Amino acid sequence: MEGGIPRAVAEELDAADPLAAFRKRFVITDPELVYLDGNSLGRLPAATSDLLREVVEKGWGGGLVRSWQEWIDWGARLGDRLAAHVLGARPGEVVISDSTSVNLYKLAGAALDAARGRNTVLMDAEDFPTNRYVLQGLADQRGLRLRRLPSDLDGGLDLDVLRSALDRDVALVVLSLVSYRSGALLDMAKVNELARAAGARVLWDLSHAAGAVPVDLAAAGAELAVGCTYKYLNGGPGSPAFLYVRSDLHAVLRQPVWGWYGQREQFRMGPDYDPVPGIERFLVSTPPLLSLAAIDPALALVEEAGVDRIRTKGLLLGRLADDLAAAWLTPLGFRSASPGTPEQRGSHVSLHHPDAWRICQTLAGEAKVVCDYRVPDRLRIGLSPLYTRFTDVWDALARLREVTAGRTYASRPADLARVT
Amino acid sequence: MEGGIPRAVAEELDAADPLAAFRKRFVITDPELVYLDGNSLGRLPAATSDLLREVVEKGWGGGLVRSWQEWIDWGARLGDRLAAHVLGARPGEVVISDSTSVNLYKLAGAALDAARGRNTVLMDAEDFPTNRYVLQGLADQRGLRLRRLPSDLDGGLDLDVLRSALDRDVALVVLSLVSYRSGALLDMAKVNELARAAGARVLWDLSHAAGAVPVDLAAAGAELAVGCTYKYLNGGPGSPAFLYVRSDLHAVLRQPVWGWYGQREQFRMGPDYDPVPGIERFLVSTPPLLSLAAIDPALALVEEAGVDRIRTKGLLLGRLADDLAAAWLTPLGFRSASPGTPEQRGSHVSLHHPDAWRICQTLAGEAKVVCDYRVPDRLRIGLSPLYTRFTDVWDALARLREVTAGRTYASRPADLARVT
User: What is the pTM assigned to this prediction?
Assistant: First the structure.
């Protein structure tokens, strides 16, 4: 079964893992299941259920409307914690609000409306669909030019392509720091520098990076970012997203959805929109409090572990996955769909195989390995370091090899996988 | 203590109340507290906590990303239930999504973008702040004219004012069916008819009506509506909102936030935005699932009770409140801030008093009556029929009389109340 790398190697890595104890801080209902889809939906932290019960029963049930006195700034408080421990931003520059798509719309809209005279938006032609659609909508409504930069599906955007596209008409560049498909990791500081030199702003989508890869928005000169909290941050299904606006831009930008949570002296309910000077001007309205509350205990785990240590383990998990794939899977027709080394990626890795969909479905059945599928032929393997063991990676790839080699996967017609 | 209406009258009304048993279906942690703010945040249904635990522990903890197969259409399923039992709409015309403000932005934007050649938006100058701000933002971005119709703060919009404002330039009229402040209830069918005759569309905000007042969107000829689920529908703090678009308009309207939840064959992730033909084209992205899930058990209670019976009780509660206020409060300097009969209102009633803020704060303390305050001098009393007893109204107004007559309310400086 081993063929190349014995399981003992993975066992030793687990024994030496300084983050190993964090796995017990998550709910694991089925110890046999290997879950390699934390890049879609992170696992449930063990503390979340009790916290939610308290918010529901004491906060809502007992405190009723009075609890809003406490709840009203949770989006800002969680934002400050994200800023300090995950994003490398300053207090008052990050807030939790709405969904990633709506936040992208708000910040891209704000940047475009402030960029009078420049009429081009650049995006990665292979970026996550909702990002592309949101930008298409904004460009359509405002009569702007949307340029889709050609990008290597398995390798990410070439910065020379970006450089040559950055002409004087470019108002905004929208990019994902980590590609949702290949996992390719961009050089944030370099991109920001190129754009700044060309007089354009950059809006980053950090969905597949936050909590997996060290991000230092301040040091990298980033101006705008959004991202989701339900992947490596384990905030729960559809937990609300974050947005970041560098503080010097608060006075310059005005987002298009003018809601009362952005209003100065909100409860005076004045006649005209008069947004606060701070990050809350990018809020719209009442947040979904239960989903918001679940971010708190999840974020506490990331804070305790530290993103640097999470990344260190992520790189080792990635290297093990690479080595096993080369030894076991390449001979079976798999081909890498990601940059070649873990340092060039976020915390997931993708593989091409003509039968990827059926293999993925079969793995999730008796083989008890959950990873995910992306059209047309990619398996995506998420290595969320807080709860993924080295032996999980070894076991999963062994089962993947077995299923593929034995061709025991189902031959039913292709359907489509769901959810990013 | 009685002075006018003996408590026995309220006790008899409770004894005869066909909905009396529903109170037991809610969590009541403090039996002495009279909660008259269900128009801001409805009480916690007793079934919600267990349902949430199941969604969190089994769905998220156990099912992990696989649970999205089940979750993905919850917004549409709940929308269909709302359509059938609360809104008088057809299947496929209502969906849960985002916040009320974001939904208002999407539908107002869609209507305005489809109304080429007409450049005026009409709104009630006294409408809820976020509605006014959202429309200001849309008008500003699109260079449209926003006309604020003068409206009686205590009585609502006069339809003659609307009629005379409906000229050939009006694209859209945005109105709340029930005023958040006075509770004034508009005639939806009449307004729709006036607007249709003038070639304009109407977008309704049903936040203070849904679950309290019978709404029949189809019969009233309504085209567009939004509303919240955390007031009389008891969906929990910040639970996501609903939106309604009449089916014949799905092909005509395109909302401005082009997200992947509106995309045809969402998981094919095609290059260009190509929205589905149905109501899901008005969705943007992944919903906050925990907050969404809490709507289910809450809606079940409204379905079981029936909005007609809820309204019947609401009218009786309103009449009792009116009678008690006339007998006890008018002599103490209170003055009605609402239309004079319950039939002209939603399920809340407002009163002016120069010391409203301090009285409201004192009531919430030792007197254990939670109602709310609106600038500058209004007490707002919410009568959510599913869990409010006639004796609650009697007790609350007796305590209100006592506090005001004895001037036992605090004299600390005015602050501002929070949350609608």
Answer: 0.96
